[in-house]
Design a protein that fits this description.
Chain B: Pfam families: Rieske. Chain B: It comes from Azospirillum oleiclasticum. Chain B: Keywords: 2Fe-2S, Iron, Iron-sulfur, Metal-binding, Nitrate assimilation, Oxidoreductase. The complex is a heterodimer of chains A (832) and B (108). The termini of chain A are far apart. In chain A, helix 13 crosses helix 15 and helix 23 packs across helix 26. Among the domains of chain A are: 170 residues, FAD/NAD(P)-binding domain, CATH 3.50.50.60; 114 residues, FAD/NAD(P)-binding domain (3-Layer(bba) Sandwich), CATH 3.50.50.60; 57 residues, no CATH class; 157 residues, Sulfite Reductase Hemoprotein, domain 1, CATH 3.30.413.10. Chain A has 832 residues and is of the alpha/beta class. In chain B, the strands form 3 sheets. Chain B has a 4-stranded antiparallel β-sheet with strand order 2-3-4-8, with no helix packed on it. A 3-stranded antiparallel β-sheet of chain B has the order 1-10-9, with no helix packed on it. Chain B is 0% helix and 45% strand. Chain B has one domain: Rieske [2Fe-2S] iron-sulphur domain (Rieske Iron-sulfur Protein, 3-layer Sandwich), CATH 2.102.10.10. With 108 residues, chain B is mostly beta strands. Classes of the chains: A alpha/beta (832), B mainly beta (108). At the A-B interface, helix 19 and strand 39 of A face strand 1, strand 2 and strand 5 of B. The structure holds siroheme (SRM), flavin-adenine dinucleotide, iron/sulfur cluster (SF4) and FE2/S2 (inorganic) cluster. Siroheme binds next to strand 34 of chain A.
């Protein structure tokens, strides 16, 4: 390989003997260059970073999910303050550099800072283009480039109304989607006949437009903006053909222009961008430039992939290493609109010397177009199914001769490998066959070799660890599957997918946590909506995912979501426990373990009347009637209801029992009314749906006869108040509780219990009991939310009580006398 | 011995919940009649090949049902348990005429 040498400018060292590196721009290219530099020459430079934005470096491409409400700012931070501290980097955030004095080698900032440099790194990114139509300076006209823009859009969206997005390219469509998710009526104006014409051919552009319109977006193509209307602020947009569209927000997303003003003023060579050579040097050898602000071999870029490569070269240069230099990048695009799969790479303009392979499957909404020239792939447009995008991209970048693959190229990599001789049907082999340079994570520019190396050298065994160490799949997550396959391929059987990152089931690649987050963020309110928006692979899920989705929807939209009985396990649908012979058991509630002659008499009568074979006292302080025939259930319940009894939910992922002891009422050691408190707790919590079953206990003194310290929440009464213990259970793996807090009054016990139940409902994964949940998130986390944050605790309790207001109807009564689900209990027909 | 098949009406399609099932009682035991999310109708003996669980009470997904007792997954079209499990729940021919579900009964 050719290597280039460095014309090193003379260097005057800083006071501590280190080279002074000043960085202008605190964005993605700048910080990636610093990361690469610190990996090569740690401690060599005294680094000062100036950033115009008042914040740390974040992943700009994730502004779209930020706007859509799918991510929070914390999720998209790339380098937090601790990173700057750890590397001794001085950050002046919110203070742009206004001048570079090249003769004196000093930069001057807006706040008046003058900082001398030996080396300067210029990474000022680009500026959004604003088309100079009348009204373009009105308040309410925004661009889409940084967090402040997103904040402005969110503020506008908060008051509802309509928005117009000018520009139907990647940025414009992502902005439009985000605003629509935030509840605005959005119209996209696009000058060209089809959307994203720079990345998509006409067919894919039409498919995309149809899908966006189906989701509620209005798209006007061939729309030439004449003026933005309004006197004090935006009121609408007028097109050249005279049409007017009223709106309170206009987003200009018509393109970007390299940010070159500073360089131009400093006298550097600037054309469209700051001109750099293959070593990223500007016309001043002391100044290096990277990112969207540069022009390299006549090209300016607007995507992140090139800047990862530029950063490596710039870091080599700053570290004084030899390197091969930067030769330019081929780029690929992916639209980040959840639920739309679209990928494009290379060049697909029609020409005589090119051949097209087109694949359409209208039923599945799949369209692929591959463009070949001289038996090489030079362009690819994929819509609806993009899993093979990275493979095509690799073929394209490598200039592989695809004449042998031609017939099956459109079917993708797995098929091609199969055709070649067997290995490929298995996706593990597919990923194994990728080269080390193959890019796995486009958002963070991580290639296969880096991940494999990190797995080996750092002993990584889980997806979470790979995310932390390499950032692969830490952003949009669309490469999660690939990363997992790499873990499998690298570690072989040693790899057990961590529960955290495991998809819910084979129907989806989403994890429990992702699904729950996206349900709220995307406002999904039914199981079909979730399956559609999150691209489930099966038509209607399976017995694993549907109950989980039903639960997440129920907690996300209390009072609004209607429980889907078809997605409940038999016991929760029948409100009784199925037995091995297909009969059922019936367990009425006995509040806090108390019963009465009247209740016992009613139970005895029911047993006689329906010839129930077994009556048993349960381990949960109540009575179980076993062997009830399905058809008899409504009548049994009606009789129990008549005596004032309701369902004990012995079948539910919900509150089961509150076990109590006798307490002060009778016991000579009792310190508080443990039975009475147990009854109050059960009255407050019964009927709630939770990720898994919940059992409470109240013991009247530390002798703990109610076994409260192996309950999901247990109260131990003492003279001075109540100790609250959490996260215990008997069961398969016994776990004793941890002490959460001690409180003085019953009122506090109730408030803590409501808040704890709600925190568990909102955070635990479906079928995760409190004990494993607590061990996963840590007792400190639960304390921070419940003990250290009284306001938060009150809010959680209020949310719990709100949702309880919809769930405390006796399901037995609804079926025994209300006619609910009658079909469950009667045969369709009797024949023969 | 010759066998005769009679198509016997047992109810209307809309009497069976989507993604659900109803039971048909017969002298030879219960049958489960399923309706999938795409409105296809299938019938099986209401006995799981594992330990006899009532398949009519399971969760219906795609063309399959998951047994309520120990989660075996049974293919509705064939009655076969889906790998890794083995076994078959007797499969009964069924057809729909003008919205009426008819089941094929065999007589000697
Ligand atoms: C009836 C009862 C046994 C008895 O005769 O005493 C019982 C019966 C069943 N238990 Fe239990 N458990 C019963 C008290 C308990 C207890 C004791 C207690 O609550 O103090 C425990 C240990 C304490 C705990 O949960 O922390 C207990 C731990 C389990 C477990 C293991 C849970 C775990 O986290 O490991 C299961 C399995 C599960 O839920 O997945 C289970 C599951 C079951 C199921 C539901 C099995 C099933 O899925 O069909 C049984 C249903 C029988 C039926 O039809 O009624 N049962 N089960 C008790 C009903 C209590 C009630 O009044 O509601
Ligand atoms: C909404 C959105 C979505 C995107 N989606 C994708 C995508 O899906 N895929 C993709 O590949 N790319 C995407 N991009 C493009 C990608 O974000 C950019 O290519 C990348 O951020 C460029 O990095 P940079 O460091 O050159 O510029 P930036 O990240 O913009 O960093 C430049 C920084 O320098 C600061 N600055 C400018 N002048 C000064 C000064 N004088 N003094 C101090 N600081 C200054 C700026 O404020 C800015 O913070 C997207 C961009 C946006 C806005
Ligand atoms: S211990 Fe086992 S056998 Fe006994 S009731 Fe609980 S689940 Fe059934
Ligand atoms: S009886 Fe059906 S799975 Fe066991």
């Amino acid at each position: 390989m050719d290597t280039l040498t460095h014309p090193s400018p003379p260097v005057a060292l800083s006071a501590d003997g280190r080279e002074r590196l000043v960085v202008v721009g605190n964005g993605m290219a700048a910080l990636r260059t610093l990361e690469e530099l610190f990996a090569r020459a740690p401690g060599r430079h005294a680094v000062t970073v100036f950033g115009a934005e008042p914040r740390v470096n974040y992943n700009r491409i994730m502004l779209s999910p930020l706007l859509a409400g799918e991510k929070r700012f914390d999720d998209i931070v790339l380098n937090g303050h601790d990173w700057y501290d750890a590397h001794g980097v001085t950050l002046h955030a919110g203070d742009p550099v206004v001048a570079i004095d090249r003769a004196a080698r000093v930069v001057v900032s807006r706040a008046g800072r003058r900082v001398p440099y030996d080396r300067l790194l210029l990474a000022t990114g680009s500026d959004p283009v604003i088309i100079p139509v009348p009204g373009s300076a009105l308040p309410g006209v925004v661009t889409f480039r940084d967090v402040d823009d997103v904040d402005r859009m969110l503020a506008a969206a908060a008051s509802g109304g309509s928005a117009v997005v000018i520009g139907g390219g990647l940025l414009g469509l992502e902005a439009a989607n985000g605003l629509m998710r935030q509840g605005m009526d959005v119209t996209v104006l696009h000058l060209m006949p089809t959307l994203m014409e720079r990345q998509l051919d006409e067919s894919a552009g039409h498919l995309l437009q149809a899908e966006l319109e189906r989701r509620g977006l209005t798209v006007i193509t061939r729309a030439d903006t004449a003026a933005i209307l309004g006197s004090d602020r935006v009121e609408g947009v007028r097109l050249k053909d005279g049409r007017e569209i009223p709106c309170s927000l206009v987003v200009m997303a018509v393109g970007i222009r390299p940010g070159t003003m500073l360089a131009r003023d400093a006298g550097l060579t600037v054309e469209r961008g700051v001109v750099v050579d293959d070593l990223m040097a500007t016309s001043d050898p002391a100044i290096v430039a990277v990112g969207e602000c540069v022009q390299h071999r006549n090209t300016c870029y607007g995507l992140v992939a090139p800047l990862w490569e530029m950063a490596k070269v710039a870091a080599d240069r700053l570290a004084g290493r030899e390197c091969a230099g930067y030769t330019g990048s081929v780029t690929a695009t992916k639209l980040k609109v959840t639920g739309i799969d679209l990928y494009s790479a290379g060049d697909f303009a029609p020409a005589k010397d090119r051949q097209d392979i087109v694949f359409r499957d209208a039923a599945r909404g799949v369209y692929k177009r591959l463009v070949l020239k001289d038996d090489r792939l030079i362009g690819a447009v994929l819509y609806g199914e993009t899993g093979d995008g990275p493979w095509y991209f690799q073929l394209l970048k490598d200039g592989t001769d695809v004449s042998g693959l031609r017939d099956t190229l459109a079917f993708g990599q797995a098929y091609a490998a199969m055709a070649e001789g067997g290995a490929g049907a298995n996706p593990r082999n597919a990923v194994a066959s990728l080269s080390d340079e193959a890019e796995i994570c486009g958002c963070n520019g991580v290639c296969k070799g880096t991940i494999v190396k990190a797995i080996g050298e750092k002993g990584l065994t889980s997806l979470e660890e790979v995310r932390t160490h390499t950032k692969a799949s830490a952003s949009c997550g669309s490469c999660t599957g690939l990363v997992e396959q790499l873990l499998k391929a690298t570690l072989g059987d040693g790899y057990e997918a961590a529960t955290a990152a495991k998809p819910i089931c084979g129907c989806t690649h989403h994890t429990h946590d992702d699904v729950r987050r996206l349900i709220a963020a995307m406002g999904l309110k039914s199981i079909p909506a979730v399956l559609q928006a999150l691209e489930w692979r099966t038509a209607d899920g399976c017995h694993v995912c549907r109950p989980a989705l039903n639960y997440y929807l129920l907690t996300a939209w209390p009072g609004e979501y209607v429980d889907d009985s078809r997605s409940r396990f038999v016991n929760e649908r029948m409100h009784a426990n199925i037995q091995k012979d297909g009969t059922y058991s019936v367990v009425p509630r006995m509040w806090g373990g108390l019963t009465s002659a009247k209740e016992l008499r009613a139970i005895a009568d029911v047993v006689d009347k329906f010839a129930i074979p077994t009556v048993k006292v349960t381990g949960g302080q109540r009575i179980d009637l076993l062997g009830v025939k399905k058809d008899d259930l409504p009548a049994v319940w009606a009789d129990l209801n008549a005596a004032g009894m309701v369902s004990g939910h012995a079948y539910a992922k919900g509150l089961r029992t509150v076990k109590t002891c006798v307490g002060t009422e009778w016991c000579r050691f009792g310190t508080q009314d443990s039975t009475g408190l147990g009854v109050k707790l059960e009255r407050m919590t019964w009927g709630s749906w939770t990720p898994h079953k919940v059992k409470l206990g109240v013991s009247g003194c530390p002798r703990n006869c109610a076994e409260a310290t192996i309950k999901d929440l247990g109260v131990i009464c003492v003279d001075s108040g109540y100790e609250l213990h959490v996260g215990g259970n008997g069961g398969i793996k016994v776990r004793a509780c941890d002490l959460l807090v001690k409180v003085a009054t019953e009122g506090e016990v109730l408030e803590y219990t409501g808040a704890y139940m709600q925190l568990y409902r909102e955070e635990a994964r479906y079928l995760e009991r409190t004990a494993p949940w607590l061990e996963r998130v840590g007792l400190d986390h639960i304390k921070a939310r419940l003990v250290d944050d009284p306001e938060g605790r009150k809010a959680l309790n209020a949310r719990f009580l709100f949702s309880q207001s919809f769930s405390q109807d006796d399901p037995w009564a609804a079926r025994a006398s209300g006619g609910v689900d009658r079909h469950e209990f009667a045969p369709l027909a009797e024949v023969g | 011995m010759d066998q005769m098949i009679t198509w016997t009406p047992v109810g209307r399609v809309e009497d069976i919940p989507v993604q659900g099932a109803r039971v048909v009682r017969t002298a030879l035991g219960d049958l489960a009649v399923f309706r999938t999310v795409t409105d296809e109708i299938f019938a099986l003996e209401d006995r799981c090949p594992h330990k006899g669980g009532p398949l009519s009470q399971g969760i219906v997904h795609g063309g399959r049902v998951t047994c309520p007792l120990h989660n075996w997954v049974i293919d509705l079209a064939t009655g076969e348990a889906v790998a890794p499990d083995h076994g078959c729940a007797g499969h009964i021919p069924v057809r729909v005429r003008d919205g009426v579900v008819e089941i094929a009964f065999r007589h000697a």
